[in-house]
Amino acid sequence: SHVRPGQRVLVMGAGTGAIPDLVARWTGPHGGVVALEHDHESVRFARRRYAPPSTSLERGGPELLAGELPGAFDAVIVDQTYLFACESASTAGDEIWRVVTEPGKVIHMGGGGDHPASAPRVPEDIAVRCERVETPHGTVPISVLSRIPEDPDRL
Predict the structure, then answer these.
(1) What is the pLDDT of residues 21-78, one digit of tens each?
(2) How far is CA 58 from CA 12, 15, 40, 43, 91, in A?
(3) What's the pTM?
(4) Helix (H/G/I), strand (E/B), else coil: 25
(5) CB 20 within 8 Å of CB 54
(6) CA nearest 100: which of 74, 67, 78?
(7) What is the Cα Rg of the chain in Å?
């Protein structure tokens, strides 16, 4: 699994809350989930329907991450439709790579191919390994970009 118990995970594109709720189950009581969504009504619905104690559902874009320390999240799950709605997909991508730890994972839902052009741009100074996750026909394609640490002893 790409998300494990005890991890801190950022979900960019929370929608109506089903994905953050599922991720909160994976991370368990000792993990944490921060979920961002642009749409106010979706956030309101998600807060009413799902209320895991270790999950924070927030309305807004990547600018909300300004207070997070670099490497604050073990994984970032990002939905392509969320990126399209960002004022600047480039800025969103920079924030994604700033807040994911080393080694950490960026799980991109949407796009296609082994390294979709629509996935968050990887800065030149960050090494990643890309893996395409097999999904049932007709479902959203998923790519996992694993951040490779500069210091191999950190693995």
Answers:
(1) 999 999 999 999 999 999 999 999 999 998 778 999 999 999 999 999 999 999 999 9
(2) 10, 11, 9, 7, 18
(3) 0.87
(4) helix
(5) no
(6) 74
(7) 15
